[in-house]
Amino acid sequence: MSYVSPLYSSRFEHDACGIGAVVDIRGQKSHGTVDSALKIVEKLEHRAGKDAAGETGDG
Fold first, then answer.
1. 14-50: per-residue pLDDT in tens?
2. Are 17 and 46 a contacting pair, CB within 8 Å?
3. Which residues lie closer than 8 Å to 47 by C-beta, 6 or more apart?
4. Alpha helices (runs of H) in the chain, residue ranges in sequence order
5. Active site residues
6. Which of 19-53 are b and which e, b meaning 16 or more Cβ less than 10 Å from the residue's Cβ?
7. The pTM is what?
8. Rounded distance, CA 14 to CA 16, Å?
9. Which pLDDT belongs to residue 8?
10. Which among 12, 7, 9 is positioned nearest to 23, based on CA atoms?
11. Could you tell me which residues come within 8 angstroms of residue 29 by beta carbon, excluding any fewer than 6 positions away?
């Protein structure tokens, strides 16, 4: 059996704004993948600059 390195390594962790990516490693389409991606968008709301009222943004 050959060793496969993990997709995540804590050595790349650092404190900064980030991105989110959700994929199915086998390339299968699913509603679960879309739901997970939408959860990331909710968590990354701070990424877009917003006006004082919080109604418009640049992202």
1. 665 667 788 888 999 999 999 998 888 777 755 555 6
2. yes
3. 17, 59
4. 31-43
5. 17
6. eeeeeeeeeeeeeeeeeeeeeeeeeeeeeeeeeee
7. 0.47
8. 6
9. 79
10. 7
11. none
